[in-house]
Amino acid sequence: MDVAIFWAPAVLAVVSGAMVFRFDSMARATFSLLTSLLCVGGLVVLLGLDYLGIVIVLMMTIEMAIMAVFMVMYMMNPAGFMPMTMMHNKKGAAVVCVLLFLLLSAGILLAPWPARRGKAPADPTMELGMSLMGPQMLTMMTLGMALFATIVATVVLATRRGRYDRLGDDLRARRADDPVRGGVGR
Amino acid sequence: MAERSPLWAIFVLPALLIAVAVVTAGFDAALAAGARNGRRGSLREAAVRAAEPGREVLRLLVQQPRRTRASDVPLARTGAALLPVAAVLAAVVLPLGFRSVSDLPEGIVWFNAMEALAWAAVWLAGWGPNSTLSLIGGYRFLAQGLAYELPHMLAITTAALGAESLRVGDVVEAQAGVWFAVWMPAAFGIYLLSAMAMAFWGPFDQPAGHDIAGGAASELSGADRVLFLGGRWLLLVVAASFSVPLFLGGGHGPLLPGWAWTVLKTAAVLAFLVWVRRRVPTLRMDRYLELAWVVLTPLAIVQALVVAVVVLNR
Fold first, then answer.
1. N or C: less crowded end of chain A, CB within 10 Å?
2. Scanning every residue of chain B, which has its alpha carbon at the shortest distance from the alpha carbon of A81?
3. To the nearest 10°, the Cα dihedral for B210, B211, B215, B221?
């Protein structure tokens, strides 16, 4: 039973991953990749790491949905309605993917895996959190704030309109002059 | 911790959810007809109107399916079918009283992951038919999703933080005394807002708005349409019911058994959400976006901080 539960998502993950290179539509390629990643999430759950597996499903779904928006938004044909293929080095990418897949599979089959020592913890999620965060909580918090500050700074630098456009030369305007009305306080 | 439920619960769960969704849709239809006529009809009239959603389903099932030109049928079908599936899968961790079909140790994350699938579903259903209006609906839903997801995640994380567990059963157990809605009111409010947004319901129904002819659902016909719009009702029911174990004490309450309290509280939340849709006009998404980022997200973070301090001092 366990074997069947392993092989079904495993095969589906590889097939839908390969189909990314075959589809001629951006939407199909995106959701084929999502299918592959969801199967990987399922396999991680099968390994007993429920939390990681479910988080993979959650993050990848949202990520792929957002990616679909951006890809289609910036494409040459309107909203991605016309059939198209990925023009940038499709063959090369496929070859690299196949080689990498073979290399990793060979690694799995040939590596001398150690036998399990001890037994699985009662709460793998807790153990995972402790080993990721435990002594480095402060580092993680600082890193998180630094990342967030970087995102905000990038957006501030990238927008054309600055605070002088919004609030006047002396920053004294009573209400901000924004292209889009509405929202908070207006 | 919640007890294990028998195997047949897996089959009862979808039927139960559909029954609740049909009753809610009937209630909404009766209210809508009353509002249209400007008066309250007799009880008999109301009953006839409440059967409207059922008749609509039968009509759609025998309808001749309509196909747009160059549509991506597999993607549109997947989208329409994925919506109810995601709703039912999310409901797996919902406890009725103190029993759920599967009380996963990471139930709260599971719920969130399944509702994320609904994002993909609505976008697929909107993109698939090769039609502008449905595409706009799909994109609107993603814009809305970006605005509601962050405060929403923080709100449900706050409940998990208060119980110090991601297991829904533990969250219910932690509310044996005081309900979380009492000492995390901001998180509760944000959850209710995002519950409506998740089912593109009430003030958040722009993805299926009249201005774009029904948006994401505009090109769906026949059984696809039943699945998609039915899935939307299921999502609403599931999102509303999940507020009961998270913030309203689940099955805890005096006198009545646990399941009865769950049903009562769920009915109250659902009735509230249906009422809100009648009272509040549709919000433009760019306006809500600013509110979500500037007000709701910081509010949710402050609420989580307060709960974290309380939990650490316990």
1. N
2. B130
3. 50
